[in-house]
Amino acid sequence: IDVDTQKNVAVADLQTALARAEKDLERRAQDQLVERLRAEIATGGRGAAGLEQVLDCLNEARVDTIVLEEAFDAPGVFCPRCGWLGTGGDECPLDGTTLERSESIVEKAAERAAQTSARCTVVSPGTDLAAVGRIAALLRF
């Protein structure tokens, strides 16, 4: 093997090792975030679990970080006038407007999070987020 081939092999090995380390760090960070969420939820602290609770907190602009499992989605409803989000109903509880259906209320929730300066974090399937409804939130207050 010539010197250039050895360098290319060494660089490829290093890139593979770095990619693996980055993936491991990301997974640990996700696990820590989910563990923090579960602790907040279990103690009645600043955490919300499940789609309905998270949407309620988004409607109140209380969400600091929305955390959802990759590929999680659900249908729901929203108010075209004020932006209220929910899992069901015909009329907006805030202004009486007829609610519109959405096949992806989770996408609307992520948009609302961005509008209220909340972060949105997607975690890999297999984290313990499934135990709290595949969507949860850390709250500002």
User: Taking strands numbered 1, 2, ... along the chain, how are they ordered across the largest sheet?
Assistant: 1-7-2-6
Question: What is the averaged pLDDT score?
Answer: 92
For the secondary structure, the number of strands is 7
Return the string of H and E elements.
Answer: HEHEEEEHEE
| Biggest beta sheet attributes | 4 strands, mixed
Tally of individual helices: 3
Cα-to-Cα separation, first versus last residue: 62 Å
Q: Choose one word for the global shape.
A: elongated
Report the sheet-strand fraction: 15-25%
Estimated structural class: alpha+beta
Instruction: Return Rg in Å.
Output: 20 Å
* Unreliable residue stretches: none
